[in-house]
């Protein structure tokens, strides 16, 4: 899809994400909004998988390591026909429903359960290494939260990926600077983040993760690098899309009131109209 089409779609997906959260009575809205653009661009323009090829051994693999941002993932999966939006909204967070608050690999298109942070990258290293050894052409992608980088298993995975020169692996870090307990730099500093990944043998791309054009270019570049895995450090805004939520740690998993819901919905509509008028 072209950038303008994706810009318009992103506002629709933000609205869908918001509605899923409201229907289920909870969710991780701040992080949903910061990583949604990366998810959307990946699925629409780069990930080689469809509802018809979920069991194809040559499909690309994606793991949402930042598993608590599931509502945005639901919105993207629904748009791409893996799931039905009405079914998700009716079942989200309901007892006995498969539509839970973290990835559930019993649902089509979801590779693995996640939510216990730090597991996505190491599993993706295994997937990518298996692909190399089996002579497969598929690529493997994962999205991590920046707060998640405090987990030691992330760096064990990063070390292994660099050692095995897994150029079929691409990790995205949703660098919104906030986690449940406040600023990532106050809780556990990650600076200098790019240099740390380079020291583990990775190509490093740093982009404005609120920019669809920059994300699209970075995913394309990642495919061209040989001999190293690639990490995209995606500088984002927690709660992106509504001033009511942006850069406020209390919106990590705040459930909007009806008044807040209407205000956020109006902000999304303004964003969509601004893109349409360009």
Task: Give a description of the structure.
- The protein is an alpha/beta fold and 278 residues long.
- It has a single domain (3-276), classed as Thiamin diphosphate (ThDP)-binding fold, Pyr/PP domains (Rossmann fold).
- The chain has 10 helices and 7 strands.
- The chain has helices at residues 3-24, 29-46, 70-79, 85-91, 120-133, 152-163, 184-187, 193-199, 212-224, 258-276; strands at 61-64, 140-145, 169-175, 178-179, 182-183, 203-208, 230-235.
- The strands form 2 sheets. Strands 1-2-3-7-6 form a 5-stranded parallel β-sheet, with helices on both faces.
- β6, α9 and β7 (230-235) form a beta-alpha-beta unit.
- α1 packs across α2, α1 crosses α3 and α5 runs parallel beside α6.
- The protein is globular and about 50 Å long.
- The model has no long low-confidence stretch (mean pLDDT 97).
How do the strands and helices of this protein lay out in sequence?
Blueprint: H1 3-24, H2 29-46, E1 61-64, H3 70-79, H4 85-91, H5 120-133, E2 140-145, H6 152-163, E3 169-175, E4 178-179, E5 182-183, H7 184-187, H8 193-199, E6 203-208, H9 212-224, E7 230-235, H10 258-276
Parallel strand pairs: 1-2, 2-3, 3-7, 6-7
Antiparallel strand pairs: 4-5
Helix pairs in contact: 1-2, 1-3, 1-4, 1-10, 2-3, 2-9, 5-6
């Amino acid at each position: 899809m072209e950038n303008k089409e994706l810009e318009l779609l992103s506002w629709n997906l933000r609205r869908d994400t918001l509605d899923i959260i409201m229907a289920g009575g909870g969710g991780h809205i701040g992080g949903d909004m910061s990583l949604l653009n990366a998810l959307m661009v990946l699925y629409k323009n780069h990930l080689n998988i469809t509802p018809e090829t979920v069991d194809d051994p040559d499909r690309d693999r994606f793991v949402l390591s930042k598993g608590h941002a599931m509502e945005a993932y639901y919105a993207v999966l629904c748009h791409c026909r893996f799931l039905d939006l009405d079914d998700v909204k009716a079942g989200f967070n309901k007892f006995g429903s498969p539509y839970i608050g973290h990835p559930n690999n019993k649902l089509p298109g979801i590779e693995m359960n996640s939510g216990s942070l730090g597991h996505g990258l190491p599993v993706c290293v295994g997937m990518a290494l298996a692909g190399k050894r089996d002579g497969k052409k598929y690529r493997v992608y994962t999205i991590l939260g920046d707060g998640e980088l405090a987990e030691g298993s992330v760096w064990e995975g990063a070390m292994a990926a660099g050692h095995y020169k897994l150029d079929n692996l691409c990790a995205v870090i949703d660098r919104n600077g906030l986690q449940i307990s406040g600023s990532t730099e106050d809780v556990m500093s990650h600076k200098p983040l790019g240099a740390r990944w380079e020291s583990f043998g990775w190509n490093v791309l740093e982009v404005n993760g609120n920019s669809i054009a920059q994300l699209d270019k970075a995913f394309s570049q990642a495919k061209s690098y040989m001999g190293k895995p690639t990490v995209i450090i995606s500088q984002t805004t927690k709660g992106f899309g509504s001033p009511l939520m942006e850069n406020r740690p209390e919106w990590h998993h705040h459930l909007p009131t009806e008044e807040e819901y209407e205000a956020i919905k109006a902000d999304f509509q303004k964003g969509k109209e601004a893109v349409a008028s360009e």
